[in-house]
């Protein structure tokens, strides 16, 4: 799967509505529902999507692919891929009946060979809660694709997640290092004072 440096990837479930031929659907993301994105040692880093994060997002040409590459099975431009939001999150609905290849993808999903999806997006608004190590995405700039994926926990998700938190992690490590230096300095001063007192 080709990974674009400026894009982030997240995994979601894909479902088949009853009695609707070649239709797949699922939520690309949920709103106001924190989830652990990855762990760094004994620290968990979480993310939450604000319910207003998709206001003004560029969804002019979102495509449905397999593993974020290759053939396009559906797209918003021809209305075979539909996006909508509700209080739960961003819902996608794809009609995979338009070509033989897209019908094959539907059959793979129907057979349970593919049961997860991932979506690619860029962020241009976020806040960070240092106490809970939670990144709150306040605005998604562009949604690129929703893809059926062979391996949900793909390296791209981990890479993009770590990249998104990189600055916060480095700042936290720097703060911890400075705090440790302050503690060492205080201990050193206390020892010096104790030595002076003993000398007197």
Helices and strands in order:
Blueprint: E1 8-13, E2 23-30, E3 35-40, E4 43-49, E5 63-66, E6 69-75, E7 81-85, E8 89-95, H1 100-110, E9 116-129, E10 134-148, H2 155-199
Parallel strand pairs: 4-10, 5-10
Antiparallel strand pairs: 1-9, 2-8, 3-4, 5-6, 7-8, 9-10
Which terms would index this structure?
alpha+beta, 28% helix, single chain, three-stranded antiparallel sheet, 200 residues, seven-stranded mixed sheet
Structure description:
This protein has 200 residues and is an alpha+beta fold. The chain has one domain (8-163). Helix content is 28%, strand content 40%. The chain is built from two helices and ten strands, in the order ββββββββαββα. It has helices at 100-110, 155-199, and strands spanning 8-13, 23-30, 35-40, 43-49, 63-66, 69-75, 81-85, 89-95, 116-129, 134-148. The strands form two sheets. Strands 1, 3, 4, 5, 6, 9 and 10 form a seven-stranded mixed β-sheet that branches. A three-stranded antiparallel β-sheet has the order 2-8-7, with no helix packed on it. Strand 3 and strand 4 form a beta hairpin. The chain is elongated.
Give the gist of this structure.
The protein has 200 residues and is of the alpha+beta class.
């Amino acid at each position: 799967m080709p990974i674009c440096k400026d894009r982030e990837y997240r995994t979601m479930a894909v479902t088949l509505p009853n009695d609707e031929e070649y239709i797949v659907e699922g939520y690309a993301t949920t709103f106001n529902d924190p989830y652990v994105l990855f762990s760094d040692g004994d620290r968990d880093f979480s993310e939450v999507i604000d319910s207003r994060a998709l206001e003004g997002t560029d969804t002019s040409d979102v495509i449905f692919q397999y593993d974020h590459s290759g053939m396009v099975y559906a797209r918003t431009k021809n209305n075979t891929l539909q996006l909508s939001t509700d209080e739960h999150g961003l819902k996608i609905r794809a009609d995979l009946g338009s070509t033989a290849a897209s019908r094959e993808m539907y059959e793979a999903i129907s057979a349970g060979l593919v049961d997860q999806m991932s979506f690619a997006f860029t962020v241009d608004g976020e806040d960070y809660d240092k106490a809970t190590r939670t990144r709150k995405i306040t605005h998604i700039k562009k949604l690129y694709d929703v893809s059926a994926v062979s391996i949900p926990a793909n390296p791209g998700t981990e890479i993009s997640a770590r990249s998104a938190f990189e600055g916060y992690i480095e700042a936290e490590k720097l703060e911890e290092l400075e705090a440790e230096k302050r503690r060492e300095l205080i201990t050193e001063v206390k020892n010096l004072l104790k030595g002076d007192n003993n000398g007197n």
